Amino acid sequence: MKKILFAAFAMCMFASCTNDATTTTKVTTEEQKNVAASDVIMKAFQTGDISGIDSVVSDDFLDHTDRGDMKGRDSLKSMVKFVTANFTNMKTEKKREVADGEYVWSWLRFTGNSNGTVPGMPKGPYDMESIELSKFKDGKAVEHWSFMEVQDMMKMMPPPPPPSKNTTDTTKK
């Protein structure tokens, strides 16, 4: 009897598992529009062409950056110009992308060359990854966050200062 119950339990467990190849997710028209808008923004950073920004970014766009919040669509356009002026041969590889209602998450890999004028970015080639999260309303980006891989961020940090010549242990009394 125990063997029959175990076999029945095992069959139920296997039957409840799904295979990614057979599982489908219905993507809504809104989500498709949001992904397309996200692609326009990504393309602007690669090419410097900001002509499509107005059609996919809200006037009151808010970008949460490491330098604080940047407000307005024009601040995004300025950032695109800054990036394309300081980084050449920029390529963006989309590793994964998920659209869920009003949000689009993109796992991106950035490669290219830094001209060395941006603080923290040494001159030469770079290769970094981040998760970009954008919130959309009516097909336009209204908010953005970026989460960088810690190892990639550490590559941009200056080396630590040399140890002090005074190595006296001040914790001893």
Helix and strand arrangement:
Elements: H1 2-16, H2 29-47, H3 53-56, E1 57-65, E2 68-71, H4 73-86, E3 87-100, E4 103-114, E5 124-137, E6 140-148, H5 150-155
Parallel strand pairs: 1-6
Antiparallel strand pairs: 1-2, 3-4, 4-5, 5-6
Describe this structure in words.
- The protein is an alpha+beta fold.
- It has one domain (27-155): Nuclear Transport Factor 2, Chain: A, CATH 3.10.450.
- Helix content is 34%, strand content 36%.
- The protein is built from five helices and six strands, in the order αααββαββββα.
- It has helices spanning 2-16, 29-47, 53-56, 73-86, 150-155; strands at residues 57-65, 68-71, 87-100, 103-114, 124-137, 140-148.
- The chain has a six-stranded mixed β-sheet with strand order 2-1-6-5-4-3.
- α2 (29-47) packs across α4.
- The longest helix is centred in the N-terminal third of the chain and has 19 residues, at 29-47.
- 12% of the residues are buried.
